[in-house]
């Protein structure tokens, strides 16, 4: 069937964080919300049908993830990435963030350090801190609009701390974000291999958040970290979910792939009793999305590609003082607003009060985020156009 992504649907008063919290967050109802990562598009028909069918069976007891759900995950990973995942490697979680937290808890003691490549999705900081750990920043380098990992700095982190022979490094894991939110970068085989080798050398697992791995622009192909080698596979915790791809984040279902048995046991131990129960509708939607969602996804990606090109072109032609990092993946655009000469507070105020567009402030993503804004372009083009016109008008009046 043909989906109409141009159609504007009202999401107000539906319990939508993106729309209903606008006044609380941005100070006015008249702000176009382009912040939190969910899309203003209805879910694919087969998902809606599956949810309706499940709702018609009025027994909403505790859930058990049967083989059908696990098979939907393993089939998809094989089909999309050629990754052969054994069913017992798959652990379900209500979300990727709770899974990241469990992974950190499993691998650390309070006071240990976790490497984050900033600027990065800000809840990673809470995940580290709520486990009593500290962030070891390995800031990404920005060269001519292109982000790169800084391997030299990364290696230096281990040397500075003296390595294991001096009582042991306190670095216990890296949280990789691939594709990388907020910069829209898809890390390829070379970067992943280099990162993975460093981690193997220091015997440090890679927690790989790949939640955006199916939201790619034309010409890009995702490589799950664990598929690069057998050793990497055994040294990783890979987090995936249909929630970003199919716009289901309110249903809370994600799948965490942990090939190494010991690592998996540690993970399960760490999260025992910590709200890891699953939602019956989340699992129903996950299975339907993975099995029957591709027709919708193909059309969505085509629409997002056009939104992305439209936005980049608009900034280039009409708002040249803001330059956009060209994304390879995700519907989150990273806007470099540094040429406006505003400090973070002023930039934040300018966007919400003058432009009346509600984006995420760059500085919340950590080092290297100052002077940036993150814009969610997963909305009908008419809304996107209005937001761009508002920004253009406000900048012209600066
Ligand atoms: C990189 C990344 N990880 C995790 C999440 C959230 O995951 P969940 O809602 O499953 O906890 C997001 C949401 O935007 C994200 O961008």
What does this structure look like?
By secondary structure, this protein is α/β, with parallel strands linked by helices. It has 2 domains: 131 residues, Aspartate Aminotransferase, domain 1 (Alpha-Beta Complex); 233 residues, Type I PLP-dependent aspartate aminotransferase-like (Major domain) (Aspartate Aminotransferase, domain 2, 3-Layer(aba) Sandwich), CATH 3.40.640.10. The strands form 4 sheets. A 7-stranded mixed β-sheet has the order 2-10-9-8-7-3-4, with helices on both faces. Strands 11-12-15-14 form a 4-stranded antiparallel β-sheet. It has a two-stranded parallel ribbon with strand order 1-13. Helix 3 runs antiparallel to helix 11 and helix 5 packs across helix 10. The longest helix is centred in the last third of the chain and has 25 residues. The model has no long low-confidence stretch (mean pLDDT 96).
